[in-house]
Structures are given as C-alpha cells and as structure tokens.
Amino acid sequence: MIVAAKKLSQVTTHMAIAFTLMYVMTGSVAFGGLAAILEPVINVAFLPLHEGFWRRLRARSRYNATAMLAAEKLSQTLFHMAVAFGVMFWATGSAAFGGVAAVLEPILNVIALPYHDRLWDRLEQRLAANARLAAAV
User: Fold this and answer.
1) What is the pLDDT of residues 67-110, one digit of tens each?
2) Residue 27 carries which DSSP code?
3) Does the reported pTM lie above 0.90?
4) 109, 16 Cβ separation under 8 angstroms
5) Cys-Cys crosslink for 35: which of 9, 22, 73, 117, Cβ 3.0 to 4.6 Å?
6) Which tens digit of pLDDT belongs to each residue from 18-68?
C-alpha cells in the first residue's frame, strides 16, 4: 500500500511541476492542465521502452558498468527534455518556450524529487518502527 501511495505522490509531483511550469510560462490554466496530463503520460508510456533498451544494452556490453549507468541517465535526461520541449512546442507553437521548458522541467524535477523521496523514506521508517513496537507489545 505504501509503495502505491509513494508512486501516486511521485506522479502528482511530476504533474504539479509540469502544470506550474506551463502555467507560469503561458498564463493559461488550460495549457497547464494539458502539460500536467500529457507530459507524465508520454513519459510513463515510453520510459519502460527506454529502460528495456538500456537493460538489453547493458547485458550485451563489455563497458564499465558505471559508465553505462551514466550514459543511461544522460539518455533518460535527454528523453525527458525532448518530451518537455515537444509538449510545450505543440501547445504553444513556440520553440523558445519549448526550449525553456526542456531545460527547466528536468531541473525542477531533479530539485524537487529528492526532497519528495526523503519525506517518503522518513514516513516508511516511522511506519516500520511503529510496526516493530506494535509487534513487541
């Protein structure tokens, strides 16, 4: 149950970032809502294909595992940037807005999500401690 709640919270955080960025850039609630839906849906639909590609590549590769992981993360970042650019460009027709979104959206996620994950880690630790106490009683 906690894993599902954490994943839902992560998706909500991504959606909030996409909405806020699009709203700040365009002043449109409609465009913000569009970005909040499209950007996560596209990422959720295509990211498993990206991960599968890298899993197969790592299995066949003789390169350093750390270098492969770094290349995968760089590729994932570029993928996210392309999705952010595409959604913003499609919605506004502006390559400039698309470029700004492509840079800001991943940066905002990189800043926000570690805080998000730390909060959830603390909650999970508290729940585990409470469960141990309850079991001891």
Assistant:
1) 888 888 888 889 889 999 998 899 889 999 999 999 998 888 88
2) -
3) no
4) no
5) 22
6) 899 989 988 999 988 988 898 888 887 888 888 889 888 888 877 787 888
How many C-beta neighbours within 10 Å does residue 80 have?
21
Judge contact between 112 and 46, C-beta under 8 A.
Answer: no
Whole-Å CA distances, 63 to 33, 66, 84, 98, 114: 42, 9, 31, 35, 29
Taking the C-alpha atoms of residue 53 and residue 19, their distance in angstroms, rounded to an integer, is 29
Contact status, residue 83 vs residue 39, Cβ threshold 8 Å: yes
Q: Check the CA dihedral 27-25-114-11 and report its sign.
A: positive
Residue with tokens 């570690």: 114
Please give the Cα distance from 14 to 49 (Å, whole number).
19
